[in-house]
Amino acid sequence: MYHLIKKDILMQKRALKLSILLIIFFTFTLSNIGPAGLTIGVLAITYQLALGASALEDKNNSDIILISLPIKRTTIVLSKYVSIYFYAAYAILGFYLAYLIINLLNLRLDIPFNFTGLIGAIIAVTLFCSISFPLIFKYGFLKAKMANLIIFFVFVFGGTGLVSYLSENNKLMLSQDLITFLKNRSDIEIFIILMVPLVLILICSYFVSLNFYRKREF
Amino acid sequence: MNKILEVSNLSKSYKDFSLKGINITLEKGYIMGFIGPNGSGKSTTIKLIMNLIKKNSGNIKIFGLDNEQNNIAIKERIGFVYDENHFYEELTVKEMKDVISPFYSRWDERIFNKYVKDFELPLNKEIKHLSKGMKMKFSLAIALSHQAELLIMDEPTSGLDPLIRSELLDVLQSLLQDENKSIFFSTHITSDLDKIADFITLINNGEIILSKTKDELLEEHCIVKGSKKQLNNDQGNFIGLKQNDFGFEALSKNKKEVIKQFGDSIMIEKPTLEDIMVFYTRRSDHHVSSH
C-alpha cells in the first residue's frame, strides 16, 4: 500500500508544487472567514491531489497495470482512501507553516489555525472522498468528473450555507439544542461524537468502492 | 504438470462481439503465437487470462491453478507486455520500477539492471518522453526481472520499427533456452512468429479456427497458383480462394488431392503464416469452408 501511495505522490510532483501556491493564496483570501477558511483550504488542496491522482490514472489507463501486477484489489482501493489523509496532512502542514511564518513576521493577518478548523477539515475531506471515490471506482475519473465537481461545490457552498442558516436562525429548536449541546462539550468530546458516524460512512464507502472495483472491467 | 496455460470453453459476450467457448493449451517451455485479424478476440482472451475482465463461462488455469481463485499467486509468476503503454507517464523509468518491484517477491534487481544496460534505458527520463520502442523495452525489462515462468504479450510489436521488433524477438528466443519459461504472444504481424513460435493458434470472430505446431501447420498447408481457366467448379480442396484477371491463388490442406486434380499445370508453394491467416479469415465471397 505504501508503494501505491508513494506512486500517487511521485506522479503529482507538479501538482504538489502548485498546491504550495494554493496554500499561500488561501492563507490570504480565506483568513477572514474564521475556522471555515482552514477547512475549505485543506479540502480544496486534498480535492486537487486526490482527484488529480485519479485523473492521471485514468489518462494512462494505468489500472490495467495495477490489476496485472500481484496486487489485491483491496490494497488498491484502501491505498486511495489512506492517501487522502496524507494529502490532508500535507495541506495542514502547509497552512501551519504559513501560520508560523505570519506570526513570526508579525503580519496583520488573522490566520485561522485552530482545532475546530482542523476537525472541520478532517470531516469535510472524509465526507467528500466517501462520496466521490465510489463513483471513481465504478466509472473511472473522467466519467465521474462532472458528478464529483457538483459534489464539491454542493459541499463548499451547501456546507457554509447550512452553517450560516443555522446560526442566523438560532431560534430554531434543533439548532439551539444542538448549539447548547455542543457548547457543553469539550473539543475532544465533539471530535469523538463526530468521528463515530464519520468512520461508519468511511467504512461503508470503502466497501461500496471495493465492490464496484471488483466488478469493473478494463 | 506440463500445462502452463489451459483455457477451456471460455466465453465472453459483448453487445457486438462474443468469444465463443474457446480452448487453448500451452505446454511448458514453448512459445505460442496467438494470431488473428484485428477484432478477432485476441485482446479479449488476454484480458480474460489476466483477470482484467470477467468471463461469462469456462475455465482458465495457469500453472494448474484457477486464475480467479489464485490471482495473486499466478500474477507473481507472470510477466506481461501490452500493446500500449499503461505505465504512469509522469514517473521516470526508475520511479516506476521502484513502485512495481516491491510487489514481486522474486524481483531480481541484477537482471533488471542488465536489461537497462542492454536496452540502453534512460533511468531518469520520464516515461512520457520515451519512444514507443523504448516504452516496450521498459515493459519487457519489468516483465523479465521477476523470474516469470509465463510471459503474456498482447501485440507487443505493433507500431514498432523492424529493428526493435527483431531485437525483441532475439530476446524472446534467448529466453526460451530456459526450459521453464513459456510465452503466449498475440499478434497480427505473423512474420514475428516465423522465427520464434512453436505453436500457432488462430482466432477469428471469437472462435478458434486452428491450434497446432507451426511446423505441422506449414507442412500440411500449401498455396496453389494457377490460371483462371484451370479453375473448375470443384473447389472442395481449397480453404480460401483469391482471384484476379491473371489467375487464382488458393490455400489448400490437401496437397496430394490438389496435384491429382490439377496435375502439373499449377504451381504449388509453401505458405507463410500470413497466407494461412489471410485465407482462413478473409471476409470474401470466395471463401470456401474447409469443413
TrEMBL record, chain A:
The chain crosses the membrane at residues 20-47, 84-105, 117-137, 149-167, 188-208. Signal peptide: none annotated. Keywords: Membrane, Transmembrane, Transmembrane helix. The keyword Cell wall biogenesis/degradation does not apply. Coiled coil: none annotated. PANTHER family: MEMBRANE PROTEIN, MEMBRANE PROTEIN-RELATED. This is ABC-2 transporter permease. The lineage of its organism: Bacteria, Bacillati, Bacillota, Bacilli, Bacillales.
Automatic annotation (TrEMBL), chain B:
SMART domains: AAA (SM00382). Keywords: ATP-binding, Nucleotide-binding, Transport. Pfam families: ABC_tran. CDD domains: ABC_DR_subfamily_A. It comes from the Bacteria. The keyword Nucleotide-binding applies. Residues 2-230 form the ABC transporter domain. InterPro entries: AAA+_ATPase, ABC_transporter-like_ATP-bd, ABC_transporter-like_CS, ABC_Transporter_VariousFunc, P-loop_NTPase. One of its GO terms (molecular function) is ATP binding. This is ABC transporter ATP-binding protein. It comes from Bacillus yapensis. The lineage of its organism: Bacteria, Bacillati, Bacillota, Bacilli, Bacillales.
